[in-house]
Amino acid sequence: MRFILICCIAAMLIGCGLNTIPYSDNNGVIKPNAAAVSHYDWGLTYAKEGNLAQAITELKLAIQKEPGWILPYFNLGAVYGNMGELDEAILAWERTTQLDTDFVKAHFNLAVAYALRAQDSDSDYPKHIDIERSIASLREAIRVDKEARSAAEIEPAFDEIRELPKYKELLESTEPQ
């Protein structure tokens, strides 16, 4: 089961993480300071090279230097997700969405991470709460970008919740006109 979860996370993050994204327009940081940018760039480089422990260190240093900059949080979540550390990934993406409520990729990643954690029999979190959080995060992703609905229809992490009334209701209520 763990192997399947890690494979799903890795597949999800290929499209939703570790990409260089321009500075956010929504969080008040026009351009982060040079030290933060340097640590962030090193974090991305280490992550792409597979040195995930060093990537975490660098991204956390970028956060220390510029705590209002969302991209280090978002990519920190992607690194933790690639490591199979869903709880840590969720914390990073939650912080991302607190700083920028319209960051669609963070909302979508949260929806996937909560759905995967609900499937993990070793998780200490109540399954029904993770399912509720998954659907709520997906709702936010669709609110920000209607294309998230199409992505949800094919996302394997949602296979176990597709037949739930709340999931069906969400997709039906956001059907293209």
How is the main sheet built?
none
Structural class, from helix and strand content? mainly alpha
Secondary-structure element order, N to C: HHHHHHHHH
Mean pLDDT: 87
- What is the strand content? under 5%
Shape: globular
Protein model, in words:
By secondary structure, the protein is mainly α. The protein is 69% helix and 0% strand. It has helices at 2-16, 34-49, 52-65, 70-82, 86-99, 104-119, 127-144, 147-154, 165-173. Helix 1 packs antiparallel against helix 6 and helix 4 (70-82) packs antiparallel against helix 5. The termini are far apart.
Short structural summary:
This protein is an all-alpha fold. It contains nine helices and no strands.
Write the layout of secondary structure elements.
Blueprint: H1 2-16, H2 34-49, H3 52-65, H4 70-82, H5 86-99, H6 104-119, H7 127-144, H8 147-154, H9 165-173
Helix pairs in contact: 1-6, 2-3, 2-4, 3-4, 4-5, 5-6, 6-7, 7-8
Provide key terms for this protein.
about 180 residues, globular, disordered N terminus
